[in-house]
Amino acid sequence: MGKILVLYYSKDGSTKKMAEYIADGVAQIPAIDIRIKSVGEATRDDVIWCDGIAVGSPTYLGTVAAPMKKFWEDMLPDWQKIDGKIGCAFSSQGGWGGGAELTCQALMTIMINFGFLVFGVPDYSGHQFTTHYGATQAGEPRADKEIESCRRLGKRLAEWVAVYVDGRTDLHPLNGLYKRNPWDK
Amino acid sequence: MGKILVLYYSKDGSTKKMAEYIADGVAQIPAIDIRIKSVGEATRDDVIWCDGIAVGSPTYLGTVAAPMKKFWEDMLPDWQKIDGKIGCAFSSQGGWGGGAELTCQALMTIMINFGFLVFGVPDYSGHQFTTHYGATQAGEPRADKEIESCRRLGKRLAEWVAVYVDGRTDLHPLNGLYKRNPWDK
Amino acid sequence: MGKILVLYYSKDGSTKKMAEYIADGVAQIPAIDIRIKSVGEATRDDVIWCDGIAVGSPTYLGTVAAPMKKFWEDMLPDWQKIDGKIGCAFSSQGGWGGGAELTCQALMTIMINFGFLVFGVPDYSGHQFTTHYGATQAGEPRADKEIESCRRLGKRLAEWVAVYVDGRTDLHPLNGLYKRNPWDK
Amino acid sequence: MGKILVLYYSKDGSTKKMAEYIADGVAQIPAIDIRIKSVGEATRDDVIWCDGIAVGSPTYLGTVAAPMKKFWEDMLPDWQKIDGKIGCAFSSQGGWGGGAELTCQALMTIMINFGFLVFGVPDYSGHQFTTHYGATQAGEPRADKEIESCRRLGKRLAEWVAVYVDGRTDLHPLNGLYKRNPWDK
Question: Which residues on chain B are in Cβ contact (under 8 Å) with A97?
Fold first, then answer.
């Protein structure tokens, strides 16, 4: 049974809201165990425990917030115990064009350093809205396509863990279990 | 009299539309000479000519479109003739979260390679809308804040050229000639 | 039996040399089928065929060479047929500090757009030499640690394909089959 | 008289060593005032004071160390007082390929957020050694080309401040006052 950690840092609640929708998406795949924890709550054991991880930080100055960065610097001594997990990123920014893509990329860089396999979601969750490098948002998700972007990221994470860790190959996106874009037939 | 080139590649017209609004913004600063050219129209002499440059490409796969990349690869033999220009970036993507920030960053990386000084605009052009690493857009700009984002980028480029190349220090943003954000008093 | 494509673009031969060492590394893992092809030789069928892929480009202006970028732009219509592969990157630059890390990151961004899971190698292949975001090189690999960096990337790619696609979980790096760093005991 | 701040965070002394060589390079340009300070020593007034800034952090997990990130997050309330400075980056990493380029890029992203104009140095400081996106190092600089890379970055920063802030246009690199690459005639 695949194990997924949704780890976030949030100050004003926007990134936390994203984390909750991502956990909703994880829950759409059966037989996955979920933990959702903030940087203050999560321990090294939570990270060692999981097979897949979604990491979220608000965008501060176009990159990861210092407390989330510090969390991973503190994990460094354990890196040989956490190699090979499957990871993805999410971030809330002050405005569109405000760096959430860059923050997702920085979060993926951190995960790549630990040996994780990282991914985004090619799907569009609505008109002119994507999750290509992780879920990005201005403020908190409100519109359906914004909420679906978070859910889709969590669902895809759960699918990859199911496919690659648990061997449930029927859940691979190439099997076409659902539409990837609103305009797909 | 400062000289500015707005250089773009556009296939469906969205990035071209951004280029036009950026040129509008440049024109808000007096005594600046402007050229606006596509990759097919611009020559090496246009690049050597200018003091400041705004470079725009659609986002294809999270980075610069191949024809724009090729343009700059072809400029490489001339690099010692074009050092020290002031540059900025813009990009149209298929959807929000679709990589336009990453493309702007890649365009700035290319310019940094040529010795350019690159910048973004910290200002917000409207509610939850910024130009921090260049102007980004999903499709073409339509809303006021989207159009203003392009204009503000062009205006700031013209200001930096005026301040740093032409010595018109009164145009420096720190002199507070206009509001940077909608909520500023 | 896992299938791996080593895909490269090379003008002066340095990136091709890296590709060959990477293929050597792939061959260290039994029962993996390998193809090594340049951008001119590879077809869309090669990409669709493989489970894992190593993509290499020289660093031009801090990012991917235009011909490699064009290759992937041409693959776009097929994206729903190639989702979920396991990918990694390599690049040869003119000098250290010359952008090969940025190019590897751009190559990974391209792969993430197609839905691939991308990774680097946390291991050190020798004194002050790593493969954290893919194999990077100034010119062509000559020193042992430089050659081993390429080989280790290919080997790790083959391991991930074996573990995640073929279910050979004994090959997971956490099982400690070999030393990750020269100073490990 | 141009004012330059060399700001660094250093734990094992490698990034501090780089900062000292960068300050050496700044001192090669006459009539520039220099301060060199660690994150613990520098105040907001030092940042407001300077016209140009070189910012250095060790590479931790492919990006900026948390204490340096926190320094800039704490500067956020002052952003409208520090717009338009000229900035560059430097970083020491554990090994080549270890993320120092990515860290320099992240430091430049932070500076771009504050409205700074950022640059790298196209020059080669020796065989296969560049400073394209800032000065990068594995451990501390020891070889001549490594030390010269740091000095060249500081010198160029001082040149840009002299040219753009102080109007000493004779110092512009296009005036060819010195060789940019070892192989230039």
Answer: 100-101, 129-136, 149
**Is B169's pLDDT higher than 90?**
yes
Determine how many CB atoms are found less than 10 A away from the CB of residue D28: 14
What's the pLDDT band for B102 if we cut at 50, 70, 90? very high
Mean pLDDT of A41-62: 98
Determine the 3-state secondary structure of B115 from DSSP: coil
Q: Name every chain A residue with its beta carbon within 8 A of the beta carbon of C108.
A: 112
User: Per the domain annotation, does D13 fall within a domain?
Assistant: yes
pLDDT at res. D185: 82
How far is Cα C164 from Cα C167, in angstroms, rounded to an integer? 6
Whether D79 maps to a domain, the answer reads: yes
H, E, C per residue of chain D: CEEEEEEECCCCCHHHHHHHHHHHHHCCCCCEEEEEEECCCCCHHHHHHCCEEEEECCEECCEECHHHHHHHHHHHHHHHHCCCCEEEEEEEECCECCCHHHHHHHHHHHHHHCCCEECCEEEEEECCEEEECEEEEECCCCCHHHHHHHHHHHHHHHHHHHHHHCCCHHHCHHHCCCCCCCCCC
Min Cα separation B113/chain A (Å): 20
Residue C144's CATH number: 3.40.50.360
Chain D environment of B88 (Cβ under 8 Å): none
Averaged pLDDT, A149-157 = 98
Q: Which residue in the set D60, D65, D113 is minimally distant from A61, CB to CB?
A: D113
Residue-level pLDDT at C185: 82
Each residue's pLDDT tens digit, B66-97:
999 999 999 999 998 999 999 999 999 999 99
Q: How far is CA C137 from CA C19, C149, D127, in A?
A: 12, 9, 13
Asked if the structure places residue A121 within a domain, the reply is: yes
Those residues of chain A whose CB sits closer than 8 Å to some CB in chain D are: 60-67, 69-70, 72-73, 76, 99, 102, 106, 109-110, 112-114
Predicted pLDDT at A185: 83
> Which DSSP category does B132 fall into?
B
Query: Is B184 a domain residue?
Result: no
Shortest Cα distance from D62 to chain C (angstroms)? 8
**Which stretches in chain D have pLDDT values below 50?**
none
Asked if A167 and C164 come within 8 Å (Cβ–Cβ), the reply is: no
Contact C131 D102 (CB under 8 A): no
- Which of A12, A101, A103, A124 to substitute to test the interface with B, most B CBs within 10 Å? A101
Residues of chain A contacting residue B105, judged by C-beta atoms under 8 Å apart: 102
Write out the residue range of the structural domain in which residue C92 sits.
Answer: 2-175
How many structural domains does chain C have?
Answer: 1
Using an 8 Å CB-CB cutoff, list chain D residues near C99. 101, 132-133
Pick D113's closest partner by Cβ from B116, B122, B180.
Answer: B122
Q: Which two tokens stand for residue A157?
A: 């994470």
Which tens digit of pLDDT belongs to each residue from A33-44? 999 999 999 999
Tens of pLDDT along B109-123?
Answer: 999 999 999 999 999
